Amino acid sequence: MATSSGLVYEVTLTIEDDIVSEFDAWLAQHVEEMLELPGFESANVFTIEKDQANKTRRVTHYHLESEDALEDYFSTYATTMRQSGIAHFGDKFSANRRVLRETEIVDGQISAVEFCRNCGTVMSGQYCGHCGQRSRSRLISLWQLINEAVGDLFELDSRLWRTLAPLLTKPGKLTRDYLEGRRVRFMPPFRTYLVLSIIFFVVVLFDPKSDFAVLFDPEAASPAEISVADTSAAQMVADEMREELIGELAADGTIPTELLPNLDQLSDTVEEDESAADAEESSTNCVIETEADEMPAWLGSRLTESRLKVLCERILVDDGKQLANNILDNIPAALIFLMPAIALVLKILYPLSRRFYVEHLLFVVHYHAFFFLFLILMTVFSKLVELLRVPELVVTLAMVAAAFYAPVYLYKAMRRVYVQGHWATTAKFVILNCTYIFGLILIFGVTVLIAVLSI
């Protein structure tokens, strides 16, 4: 027969095997002491069979008359009662505590008590109240594994999609909601920034015709490539004709056979001279003049004239593609260094806002996440424009609108988060933008330098 227990204070005790008997004797006495406290009406002690972790457990349910009695216990008696067990057994047992309301106990017994396999807390539903892990322990299916990996991308009600809309269209809303404690609906700020930065670089570097070249028809060779191929073929034919002619003249006796080695040597000399001339002509594109005295010592030792010439030639070999890839690879790290500096500027610009530095950093993280999302949309738009052959006027208007939207977004975000007037916000907006421009130039210069030295 089921009886309602009302308000229950539950204590789950995990005990080492060598103290079980002694612990049970102490627990019986401890329960009697607890029932002498005001508000404690009755108690039940349940013996739990060992689980897969081979742990011995005892669960005690204390029935209290009211919430006030429970609060009085926590504020007055809890520390003393807990110290009693520690004094007797030290670290040979552990205790997990929780409060149950309207719990049903069937015939004075707990049936099928289940413990979390991750943290050991007694389960009261599908998910652990302590760590959040689901109670089911069976192996998941392949579909569930895939769903956990990419589910947020395709579930319209996921935190990712609930974050992107306000991030793009409501400047400063995510930052303000986060600072005011409304956080569960949205993806955490740094995770949003990392996800969008990864997606951005995937979108930028993705080229279907290059990455999936096997699926496309091969492109026709350019006129320059055809010209080079024709020249090479003509040169091979000319060499064959020359050797055949020299052989016929030597066979007829027109050219003495003793002159043949000299002719071959002369031909080789001419070819070497032509190759040297070609190499000299190609190297004229990388004439480097440096003034090492004007550079720092650590930089001058790395950017010597010979080193710069080699770098220049490497860049020209692939038309700078490797350099561009190196720059893109270093941009995320560069922006991570820029964000704390911009947050420090905001801290200086708003000295009376009583906000911590990390709150300003949160604002900057959200703005950079927006900027990555904005760049993703612009990159996708540019690729669609090339594919659909959109009129240039439409493209120009879209680019102009986009160029104005980013700074307007920053201004409105500052207004919403810091709640200041138009004139004060405008002045700080100008200072912040100047700092941004200077920081981007500095960061970009360092990024290019690192990218060049990495070739």
What topology does this entry show?
Layout lengths: L1 E3 L2 E9 L4 H16 L4 E9 L7 E9 L2 H10 L1 H12 L3 E9 L2 E3 L35 H13 L4 H11 L3 H7 L9 H17 L2 H4 L11 H30 L7 H24 L13 H4 L4 H13 L3 H29 L7 H32 L3 H27 L3 H32 L2
Antiparallel strand pairs: 1-6, 2-4, 2-5, 3-4
Report on this model:
- By secondary structure, the chain is α+β, with helices and mostly antiparallel strands.
- Helices cover 62% and strands 9% of the residues.
- The chain is built from 16 helices and 6 strands.
- The chain has a 4-stranded antiparallel sheet with strand order 3-4-2-5.
- Helix 14 runs antiparallel to helix 15 and helix 15 crosses helix 16.
- The relative contact order is 0.07.
- The N terminus is likely disordered.
